[in-house]
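User: RNA-binding transcriptional accessory protein, Streptococcus pneumoniae:
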Amino acid sequence: IERRIRTELTEKAEEGAIQLFSDNLRNLLLVAPLKGRVVLGFDPAFRTGAKLAVVDATGKMLTTQVIYPVKPASARQIEEAKKDLADLIGQYGVEIIAIGNGTASRESEAFVAEVLKDFPEVSYVIVNESGASVYSASELARQEFPDLTVEKRSAISIARRLQDPLAELVKIDPKSIGVGQYQHDVSQKKLSESLDFVVDTVVNQVGVNVNTASPALLSHVAGLNKTISEN
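Assistant: Predicted structure for RNA-binding transcriptional accessory protein:
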């Protein structure tokens, strides 16, 4: 009896956890898009430098750059980084900066806020970058940006994630998006099925523009599969 009760409780707990992960994913996918803005994606780091990517209002990559805005960078490097960021804002008409919430995010936020004192019309927002590194190392990202490093692709993903979270997040395995702790403690098959169902449901609920949507997004539309969506 004790074993049966333990099994039943474990199954209930697993179902509850998977439901919570699914709800978290749904909330992430349904974050309101910020379309029609020129965005600068800012992927923070300490020693290796921050990777920047400017994308136009449609999400097309305009330029990428590496700067050293936080310690252990020298005072001279940090001053150069301020100038470089200001130049990018002015040259490309950046309207908003999307800062990834990973390593060195807080220090990078302080740096960006300092630079934006000279650009009162430009704002910044912290973006959940979970899964961006997974996408940037994927075959899909390599096809889209074959000449860019993984880190620069990640900055592009962060910028696009602010513009259209749904369109960007569908490129990533839902389990890599970071929808909750202890994901690996539940049945991976059940978790995958539940998360995939959430993605399909949200895509069909929101709808897509077939002329501009990526194959990754179209493949979740009812009646379309991966092969059809790529044609």
